[in-house]
From TrEMBL:
EC assignment: 6.3.4.18
Database matches in Gene3D superfamilies: 3.40.50.20, ATP-grasp fold, A domain (3.30.1490.20), ATP-grasp fold, B domain (3.30.470.20)
Annotated family: Belongs to the PurK/PurT family.
Lineage, top ranks: Bacteria, Pseudomonadati, Pseudomonadota, Gammaproteobacteria, Alteromonadales
Binding of ATP, residues: 93, 133, 138-144, 175-178, 183, 206, 258-259
Residue intervals of the ATP-grasp domain: 97-288
GO BP terms, alphabetized: 'de novo' IMP biosynthetic process
Name of protein: N5-carboxyaminoimidazole ribonucleotide synthase
Keywords from the UniProt entry: ATP-binding, Ligase, Nucleotide-binding, Purine biosynthesis
Amino acid sequence: MNVLVLGAGQLARMMSLSSKNLDIHVTAYDVGSEKVIDPVTFLTVDQSLQQAIDSADAITAEFEHIPLDILKLCDESGKFYPGTEAIATGGDRAKEKALLDAAKVACAPYKIITEKQHLLDSIDELAMPLVIKTCQAGYDGKGQWRVKSLDDVEQIWAEMSEFLAKDASHQIIAEKMIPFDREVSIIGVRSKNGETAIYPLTENQHTNGVLTLSIAGKEKNAIQAQAESAFTAIANALEYVGVLAIEFFDVDGTLLVNEIAPRVHNSGHWTQQGCHVSQFENHMRAVTGLPLGSTVLNRPTAMINVLGQAAIPKAVLAVADTTSHWYGKSAKPGRKMGHINVSADSLSELGDKLADLAKVLPEQDYPGVQATAEQLK
Ligand code: ATP
Ligand code: MG
Ligand code: MG
């Protein structure tokens, strides 16, 4: 079978690698260069987007900020999963919040802003500190501001109005800053006939808005159940097909949704070693109509993102049960270049292995690894 992925980055690459043994062949459409490529070799495939659509058995996407005309073209083919509505919802925070409200899933109190008075109203209604985010663009914490005092308003409004002026459809959202204990996410998959399979909850650490460390295998049943019911409500509301990720704030054992991602997600990369069937393979199974695979955790597993480095730090491979996943991209400061997964038979053994990794990874480049190792040991 042939699958076309919109977007040609590491997620398309890992979807391709994960499904070779299912005899699924992946091509990727790079929206920026408008080229169809093989996302593993990066070689150009001599096809137009329309030809790639015509020759695909299924079409999917690795990111949510895709021009509407391309989404519509794919939808017309009748083989696009999870489809335009789900992808557009994940790519627009205003649509996303409306979906959460309709599905009765709790999120941070918010207000949509299109003019300066709305910003002032949001300060009255929600109370500072606020997190302000662009609704239509933004990833890895880009397109965000923090309002901590009234002195911040002029400067932030100047930058916000620049974004609003770019396109009449642009909106901004103010959210109450949530004093969370930690961040977690759930990754699950829904098939064409509405079956779901959900992975164990993942605990995530972000540094400057970018995910740096994920851990799976330490969660209690009650919190897993909360996350699963949010997943099911959202996936069913969207009649979703494929892998869907939901990020949450954990506030004293209660989960509030931060955002959803209508795709495979960085906080699910640990499933490549932690489970029999990874999020990438399960996504490909769902969109091609194959039976879903197991989402049961085999062993506690952690994932560490490698940011900005030109090569995989070799010493990590000497630590037992460690694997490297490299994306083959050119290095830029802070760019996601690859990731490391490490598994263990118990959480304390995972702590020992993270401590071994922390010895060979410089703390400034891999914040949180040492501290997390100590907590788990
Ligand atoms: P991603 O790469 O995950 O798509 P993004 O740019 O869409 O990132 P968010 O996930 O919305 O951004 O926010 C990035 C981080 O900022 C969050 O993981 C969280 O640490 C912090 N953050 C966002 N919104 C809030 C909030 N309302 N209260 C507290 N912290 C927040
Ligand atoms: Mg996001
Ligand atoms: Mg996020």
